[in-house]
Amino acid sequence: MLSLSEKILFLIFAAAALYVGGMAFYRVYRAIARGKPENRFDHLATRLGKGLWIALTQQTVFKKRPWVSLLHAFVFYGFVFYLLVNLLDALEGYFPVVLRGGVWNGVNLIGDILTALILVGMAGLLLRRFVLRPADFTWNPKTPLHEKAPDGIRRDSLIVGGFILFHVGSRLLHKSAQAADLGPDPFQPVASAVGGWLGFLTPEEIVFAEHFFWWGALGSILVFLPYFARSKHIHLFLAPLNIAFKKEKPGALLPMDFERAEETGLGVAKLEDFSWPRLLDAYSCIQCNRCQEVCPAYTTGKALSPAAILISERYELNEILPMFAAGKESPRPLLDFATNEESIWACTTCNACIEVCPVGNEQMLHIVDIRRERVMMQGEFPAQLGQAFRGMERNGNPWNLSQDKRTAWAEGLPFEVPTIEQNPEAEVLYWVGCAPSYDPRAQKIARSMAEILQASGVSWAILGKREKCTGDAARRSGNEYLFAQMAEENVATLNAAMEAKPKTIVTTCPHCFHTLANEYKDFGGSYTVRHHTDFIAELVSQKKIAVGFSDGKVTFHDPCYLGRHNGILQEPRAVIQALGLELSEPPRHGKNSFCCGAGGAQFWKEEEPGAERVSSNRYRELKKTGATTIATGCPFCMAMMNVETAQEPEGQGMQVLDVAELVAQDLRKRQEAVEQAAD
């Protein structure tokens, strides 16, 4: 037990540390509260429960780097339990009690084991960062990064790591000295073992050690508290909140208030322009660079690093925190310290960074916010995007081709493709999309889908020349104003088409699917929308079409806006397997799939300079599966893969077919078999 003077001194020290540390945390709260409002408080109890559960189970941490995640879990679970342990140690210091025996045996055993695991975990993590130094902690030389981040990250890691080792090590030695004084405790095997090594000390020296290391354990917390709020260790408290307030579908962007544009501006140029969840992202980031590791742009040698953006924002906030928390304007724009033009235009909006982040950050949304400001406030964007914008404005499609050619894909089919005017009672409205309408290669997807719909016997129709681009490319590239115009026009058209009878919208483009299903509801259009692979899987399961006449080895490339953004993973695979094809998966598949490089309006502009094209990286991986055919569920993925096959020597490239084309081929084989049997 502490002496009276020690008790008084500790209380004074604790009060001062709690005040200074509390003010630091309050400034962080005020800084985050500077962000613009965004409603993330629906179903609050459910959100908070989910955030706490995900944090406690560490399920997001274990998505990648299993051995490193295990070391992190040792530290995390140890620190969670240490919230109780530190309280109990304080009680032992202030009251004449020794918490041994009875109910305390279980508590002591868990605390003792976790103490050892924390030390092992922290030592392993520090060894990895400062001795092994894997590529995870390096940066592309052309990646923009806050000037104080490189040294700051190393310093912060040393401070946090040193604090944890000293704090936990002191607690172990305190309990070890206690074991040497009172005798070993079988429910504290590690502390008792270390205590056995202290037998050379005199009783007075052992008592001194008990007091000294008690202060080392609990006093180090008080020393660390004022620094806590500016360290990455703050994620221990903010990560569960960030996960709780994360959007269910981060890629479903929110509309903007154009009526307040003069007052608030459009998009984000400075820190205070962000909504509060973006500022919470910056403070939740643990600087693990997992998002950088999976980013298609960074992986292929480009300047963009989603990790660098959040880390740079965090270091700038730390630098200006008192004045920023007080409501003053930040001194410089984001493009001066967090990112640059080359980086923001390299993003494919594939959602991989968000999917992999262990603390629920939404890095992609930072980039889209900055793009919005560049496009709508500054009028600065890659020149090629201007052509796509003009096409959407003038002719309702980024190809800038006439609406009169919207149904040219249907010419030559052995049946008439009905429009909604011809079949207003249709059960299915096939949303063709711009690529299958205008791109000669993608038109074969639309023709195949029409064959499948016709063979299934469902009542269906198309909008025909009334269909326009959903505006996906405009929105992802930051032209929210153009997207809103197109969304309002399309919603009016779709609502009118639904007047006779509600319809299921089926589309062959994941980008159209995502926009129609998740984003048009903000413009008054709530629809039942199905991606064609999902719809075809249902037709097969309900035996509305008979398949199973194919063979060969196929690999499936998961489109980002189908798999990662919307969770449609098994349905296209179920169709492929129902056809009788052998499915060979690449290492990166499902929600961990690698982007083709077309998303985020990249299809409409030149790719930023790097070591290779994103599509080249992906194609090389798909070819290594040994499959002869790449199956896709997106016309843009198909186009990007075909760019790669065209560069192969004749006869060595893979065949690229949409799932609908594979099914249509199978249906033709079945028909041929039926006709041959009839002969």
What does this entry show, briefly?
The chain has 679 residues and is mostly helical. 55% of the residues lie in helices and 4% in strands. It is elongated and about 105 Å long.
Describe the structure.
By secondary structure, this protein is mainly alpha-helical. The protein is 55% helix and 4% strand. The strands form two sheets. The chain has a four-stranded parallel beta sheet with strand order 2-1-3-4. It has a four-stranded parallel beta sheet with strand order 6-5-7-8, sandwiched between helices. Strand 5 (553-556), helix 24 and strand 6 (582-583) form a beta-alpha-beta unit. The longest helix has 34 residues, at 149-182. The radius of gyration is 30 Å and the shape is elongated.
Give me the side-by-side strand order of the main sheet.
2-1-3-4
Number of strands: 8
Major beta sheet summary? 4 strands, parallel
Percent helix, as a range, is 40-55%
How widely separated are the two ends?
99 Å
Taking pLDDT < 50 over at least 5 consecutive residues as the criterion, the unreliable ranges are: none
Beta-strand residue percentage: under 5%
Radius of gyration: 30 Å
Total DSSP helices: 27
Q: Any idea what the shape is?
A: elongated
The average pLDDT score comes to: 95
User: By helix and strand content, what is the structural category?
Assistant: mainly alpha
Features:
679 residues; mainly alpha; four-stranded parallel sheet; 27 helices; 8 strands; elongated
